Amino acid sequence: MATILLVEDNEMNRDMLSRRLTRNGYEVLLAVDGQQGVDLATSRRPDLILMDMSLPVLDGWEATRRVKAAPETAAIPVIALTAHAMEQDREAAMAAGCDEFDTKPVELPRLLGKIRALLGEEG
Amino acid sequence: MDGEAAQQDGDACPYDPGGLGREATLLRATLENMAQGVAMYDASYRLVTWNQLFREYLDMPDEFFDNAHTFQDYIRYLGARGEFGDQVDIEAVLARRLAQLDHSHRFERTRPDGTILEVRRDPVPGGGFIAIYTDITERKLAEMKLREDEEQLRAVDAAAPVGLVIIDRASHLIRHLNGGMSRLIGREAATLAGRPVEAMFADPDKGRELWDILAGPPVERREFILPGPDGAPIWTMVAHGDLDFRGEPAIIATFVDITDRVQMEQQLREAKEAAESASQVKSAFLANMSHELRTPLNAIIGYSEILSEDAADNGDTAMVADLDKIQAAGKHLLGLINDILDLSKIEAGRMDVYLEQVFLNRTVDEVRTIVGPMMEKNGNRFVIDCPLDLGSLRTDVTKLKQSLINLLSNAAKFTKGGQVSLSVTRRQEGEVGTVRFEVRDTGIGMTEEQIGRLFQAFTQADSSTTRNFGGTGLGLTITKHFVAMLGGTITVSSVPGEGSVFAIELPAEAAEAPPAEAPVIDGGAPVEAGAITVLVVDDDPAVHEVLAATLGKEGYVLRHARDGIDALDIMRRDPPDIVTLDVMMPKIDGWSVLGIMKSEPELAHIPVIMLTIVDDRNLGYALGASEYMTKPIDRQRLLGLIHKFTPGEEGGQVLVVDDDPDVRAMVRAAIEDGGLHAAEAGNGREALVWLGAHPLPSLVLLDLMMPVMDGFAFLSEVRANSAYADLPIVVLTAKELTESERSYLAQNTLLILNKSAQPIGTLGAALSAIAGRSRGVGGKSAAGKAAPGGAG
C-alpha cells in the first residue's frame, strides 16, 4: 500500500482529501505546515507528497525545494496543489521542483490519475 | 429775365461793359468748364458773373440772374426757402455773412437735400468778391465712412474676446496690444506699447518663452500659459503669423483663453484615472474574493462528493441524487467564479499571454477528453476532424483550449440527441498561415437578435439553461477576448432550429514576439554591467523568439547563435554567463558543442542548459553504448549487467568512469561483490589514458556528464578507435527529466530540459538559480563537479 503525505493547512481540505485517498486504498500521512511536511518526508519517506502551496511556517514552494534538495527525499514525487488556477502558479511550482501540478478544488479522478502515474501504478 | 438768362447761356457774356470780346468769351468758357460753381459780385455786392454750376448748386429762380440782384437778395431768398435751417434768424445769418466778406473765408454747408457744399469767398481788388462753391458730398461721405470704419475697428479691437499683440520682428517692441490682451494679463495697453515683448510679464523668462514661440515658424496653434491679472495661470491657445505693420516686418499673435477647456480636460482626466484605479481596485477585489470564495466551495463540493460516494456504497440512490445536485450547483458556482475572475483580469488588462508551440492533435485530444462527457450527457454524437499532419501553431495553449471548450460545451448544451463536430484546418496565404477551428452543431440555433447579444457578458440566448454546468453566460465573452488576445477572430452563423457554426481563426504565429528571423549572430548589443548574458544556441528561430521574450523581460542579455560553430566562436570571443544548447542542430550537434566546451579551460566552467527532445538513452545508444542504466543506481540491476557482459569471467576488470567518488566507491563495492576487479577514472580523458595503458577491461561503466571530457565525447573517441570496437560500455545517467536529475543539475549548474515536456517559461527561474550560483562560486569552480546527488 503506497503512502501519501498530504501537506495542507486547511482542516476541511485535509480531512476531505485524506478520507478520499484512504478510501482509494492509500495510507495517508498528514502535515499542517511546510516544516512539518519536510520533517515527515524525511522521517517517514512517503511514496508521494501532495503539497499545498500557501502554507504557514514554510510555504509549499520552499518546502518542495528542501525536499528536493535533500538526497534522501529528492526522489519522492511531489504534486503541487494550489487554488490559483494560473499558468504562472503551475510554472512556479514546477520551478520549485514539483513533479506535477493540480488545482483545487480537487477533481479526485484527475488527481488519482496523476498520483498513479507518478507511482507507476496501473490505471 | 428768362431772356437774360438765355442770353447768358447763349453766345454773349452779360458782363462785357468794356467790350473785351474775345477775352470775355475765354473767361466764360473757363467758368463753364470749372468743376465748381462760381459767382462774382461787384463792389455793391450785385451778382455780375456766374456759371451754370452755381445756378444748379443753389437752384435759384431765373429772375435773380439779371445783374441787378444782390448778395443780400440771395441770402434772404435762400434763408426764406429754408436753406439754412427751419427756424433761423435770416437777418442774423446775413449780418454774419456780410461781416466776413472783407476777407477770404471758407465754410461747409449742408443743404436740405443732403448735398454738402464747400463755400469759399475771396474779396477781389477794387471791391466785390468771388464765391466758389464745391460739391464735397462724396468726399465728405467717404471721410465719414472711413471714420466710422475706424471707430468700428477700434471697438472690435477693444472688445474682442481674443488677445491680440503686434510685435516688431526686428526690435521685439510691442507695436500694438488690444483690449482683450490687456484684460488677459491685467496690464493697460498704453503702458506696454513701444516696450519690448519681455516686459509683458512680471517674469522676464515668461516673456522670453513667448518670444521663442512667436519667433518660431508660424504654427496653427500652440498652448501657452499666461500669468493672469491675479497671478493665476491662464491657458491660452496661441496662433501667430507675419504681418507688414506700417511698413515694418512684424508678428501678429492672438491668444484665446482655453482655461475652461483645459480645466475640464483635467477634470475628465482625473475622473478617468479615478475610474481606472477604481476598476483596478475592483479587479483586485474580485481576484481576492474569488480566492476566498473558492475555499468554502472546495469544502462544499468535496464533502458532497464524499457523501455521494458513501451513499452510493450504501445503496441510497435518492440521497446520491440530492448530493449530486449540491455538487453540480457547487461546480456551477465555481465555474461562475472562475469566469468572473477571468473577465475581471481581462478588463484590468492583467491577463497575460504565454506563447508556445502548440501541437494541434495533442490539444484537440485534451479538449476531447474534457468535453466528451458533456456530449454524452445530452446524447450528442461528437465528431472530430483534425488531420494528423496539421502540425503546430504558436499561441497560448490555455486560452486556446478554454476557448474551444467554451464553444464545444455550448454546442453540447444547446444540442440534444444531435451532432456536434469540431474541424480543424490550416490555410496558408503566402507568408501568413492561419488555423481555423470550426464548431458545428445541430442544436436549437439562434435568431439574428440572439446572435447580436451573444458576446455580451451575462447574456444567454436561453436563460433557463444557466443551471447546466458552466453555463455562466460569460463563456463567449471570455472566448471573444481570448481570441482577440491571440490575434484571431471569432465568427458565428446560425439558423434557428437547425444549428449554429462558431469558427475561430488564429494566426499560426501569434504576434507579440520579436521579428521572426532573429539575427543569426548578435554580438552587438552593449552589455549592461552586471547583466547576465545568455547565449542561445538553437537552429529553431522560435526558440530564439521565446527565449528573447521570456528572458529579455527578466533583464537577461541574450546572444544568439544558430549552430554550434557560431556558438563556439561567440563563446571564445566573449564567454557568456550561461549557454542554452539545443541538441539537434546542423553542422555540429549540441553534445559535440558541449564536449568541446568542456575540453577548453576558458569555456569549461560555463553552465550549460541542454534543450533537447531527444532522450539521453537513444543518444547514448546511437553513440555506441552497449547498455543504458539510470540513476539512482539499482544495485541488483548493476550486478546483472556486469554479469551479462562478463560471462563466466573471474577476476575480470571493470572500468568505472564517473566524476563522483561516492558513485565510484558504491559501484566498486558492487563489482567486487561480484568477484571482479574495479578500476576508476574521474572523467573521459582519464579513462582514455587508462585504456591506453592497460589491457582491455571486461566492461566500462560510463557516466555521461563529467568535466574535462564527458561521456559522450569519450564514446565518440572510443568508437572511432577500432582497437576498442568490441569494448562493452554501459552508460550510467540520470533517468529522463526527474527530481534526481534536477538535484544532479542543481549541483553541477548543468540542466537538461526536455523541450517537449517542460514549459519553456520555467527556464527563467532555472536560469536565475544557476546564474546566482555561478556568480556566487565564481569562475571555473562553478563547473567543478560535485557529487551527483541522484546516486545513492
From TrEMBL, chain A:
Q: Which Gene3D superfamilies match?
A: 3.40.50.2300
Q: Which PROSITE patterns match?
A: RESPONSE_REGULATORY
Q: Which parts of the sequence belong to the Response regulatory domain? A: 3-119
Q: Is Phosphoprotein given among the entry's keywords?
A: yes
Give UniProt keywords alphabetically.
Answer: Phosphoprotein, Two-component regulatory system
Determine the domain of life of the protein's source: Bacteria
List the SMART domains: REC (SM00448)
Entry-annotated residues carrying 4-aspartylphosphate: D52
Matches recorded under Pfam families: Response_reg
InterPro entries membership: CheY-like_superfamily, Sig_transdc_resp-reg_receiver
Instruction: Give the signal sequence positions.
Output: none
Write down what this protein is called: Response regulator
Automatic annotation (TrEMBL), chain B:
Q: Which CDD domains does this entry report, sorted A to Z?
A: HATPase_EvgS-ArcB-TorS-like, HisKA
Q: Known EC number(s)?
A: 2.7.13.3
* Catalytic activity from the UniProt record: ATP + protein L-histidine = ADP + protein N-phospho-L-histidine
Q: Where is the PAC domain?
A: 220-270
- Stretches of the chain forming a coiled coil according to its record: none
Q: Where is the Response regulatory domain?
A: 533-646, 653-770
Cross-referenced InterPro entries: CheY-like_superfamily, HATPase_C_sf, HATPase_dom, His_kinase_dom, HisK_dim/P_dom, HisK_dim/P_sf, PAS, PAS-assoc_C
Q: What is this protein called?
A: histidine kinase
Species annotation = Ancylobacter oerskovii
